[in-house]
Amino acid sequence: MNATARNPTTARPAPAEEGAGGRELVGCTAGVFDMLHVGHVRLLERARERCDRLVVGPTTDELCERRKHKTPIVPYADRALVLRPRLEHAAA
Is there a catalytic annotation at residue 70? Predict the structure, then answer.
């Protein structure tokens, strides 16, 4: 989890101004996201509010087993598909 997700009070920097040498603020977070629930959705929404683009990656089953000593219920390929951006959200 990134620092933004852990500290929801952190103010988002002003958006980059086009043509003024500004850069797009890209956020990144990862998680198992097994049995996706409203808590996951809210975390991702808060993280997305703090950047211009959010990259979300599901961790592999092997990493989950190694770090959390748990086997995910939902296989990696299915979790990745659920998190994959939809066309209507790709432009956001």
Answer: yes
The model's pTM is 0.64
Greatest alpha-carbon pair distance for the chain in Å reads: 48
Which candidate in 12, 53, 70, 84 is catalytic? 70
pLDDT single digits (tens) 5-20: 445 445 555 555 554 4
* 8 vs 90: CA distance, rounded Å: 24
Residue bearing tokens 């850069």:
23
What does the pLDDT look like over 40-53, one tens digit per residue? Answer: 999 999 999 999 99
Let me know: does 83 contact 54? Beta carbons within 8 Å: no
Q: Is 9 annotated in the active site? A: no
φ/ψ of 29, rounded to 5, equals -145, 155
